[in-house]
Amino acid sequence: MKPTKFFSLKWDINSNFFRRNGFPEFRISKLTLIIAFALSFVSNLFAAGESDFPPNYYDTVALLLLLIIVISLLSIIYYEGKPKVVKEKKASVLSKLSQLLTKSTPIEREKDIMFDHDFDGIKELDSKIPPWFSWLFIITIIFAAYYMIDYHIIGSGQIQYEEYAQEVKIASLEREALIKSGAFVNEETVTLLTDASGLSSGKAIFEANCIACHAADGGGIVGPNLTDDYWIHGGGIKNVFKVIKYGVVEKGMIAWQTQLNPNQMQEVSSYVLSLHGTTPAAPKAPEGEIWVEEKAE
């Protein structure tokens, strides 16, 4: 028998003989295969013919190898048949916490909490309500009682209507502040001021910034005459406000929106229009075209 045959075979000693006689199931280990291979190899040497060894040498080696094989097999049978001790795994912190919160019943103990009745083979478990759900339910009841007493009996808290009224009041105050700052005043929404206070403020702004080009009485020097019916960029409060706000760069007039707020530009625009029809000391020749304001339908 060739030695390689032992490596091509996978011996599995699970026969009915061992089962019937109470022997445990086991597999031949690699050590046993190596010993069997060595024995086969030595047997081939014994059969090769005579050698220089003593006559009893081969018998002694054969007995030793046979003893090793027997001991190996007995060891395998003993250790494979010995019951294995399975250590119980300790519960982790997460599993303990989960059990504390849910109080769930393990699957292997569900038969202990199973009702006797069933519906089409579907059975019911007498499971406990999870503690977290019970506590959540209790907290909602406590909060509902507190809310009712605080908001509807004592009245220390604001209900939704009161909160809405308070927010509307705050928004009104903020709107008034924005109106005073001129945030809503632009070339599309500006209106002509006729009150003495607004015109007085506009005159002060005009005298501080505009007389160098338009003269103190509006007759015009470098800039055009502001008292006649002729306007280069259109008359009316919206056009005048727009010219003051954005300026006329090609004519040398700066954009005053960087130095005056919307309310101040409205005041000075209204004052400029109040000069129309007055008689300046040295009026400049008319420039532009006669402008007539369109009447609103």
Task: Describe this protein's structure.
It is a single chain. The model is unreliable at 1-19 and 23-27 (pLDDT under 50). The chain folds into three domains: 5-81; 109-157; 196-290, Cytochrome Bc1 Complex, Chain D, domain 2 (Orthogonal Bundle), CATH 1.10.760. The N and C termini lie far apart (124 Å). The protein has a two-stranded antiparallel ribbon. Strands 3-4 form a two-stranded antiparallel ribbon. Strands 5-6 form a two-stranded antiparallel sheet. It has helices spanning 5-8, 16-20, 30-46, 57-81, 93-102, 131-154, 160-181, 196-209, 211-214, 236-246, 262-274; strands at 12-13, 26-27, 114-119, 122-125, 230-231, 289-290. The chain is 50% helix and 6% strand. With 297 residues, it is mostly helical.
Largest sheet, spatial ordering of strands: 1-2
Q: Counting H and I runs of at least 4 residues, what is the number of helices?
A: 11
Mind telling me the CATH superfamily name of the largest domain? Cytochrome c-like domain
Can you tell me the residue ranges where pLDDT is under 50 for at least 5 consecutive residues? Answer: 1-19, 23-27
* Helix-residue proportion: 40-55%
CATH architecture designation of the largest domain: Orthogonal Bundle
N-to-C SSE string, H for helix and E for strand = HEHEHHHEEHHHHEHHE
SS elements, strand count = 6
Q: Helices and strands: which structural class?
A: mainly alpha
Shape: elongated
Mean pLDDT: 80
Query: Which CATH C-level class of the largest domain is it?
Result: Mainly Alpha
CATH topology of the largest domain: Cytochrome Bc1 Complex, Chain D, domain 2
Give the distance, in angstroms, between the N- and C-terminal Cα atoms.
124 Å
Q: Estimate nothing, just give the exact number of structural domains.
A: 3
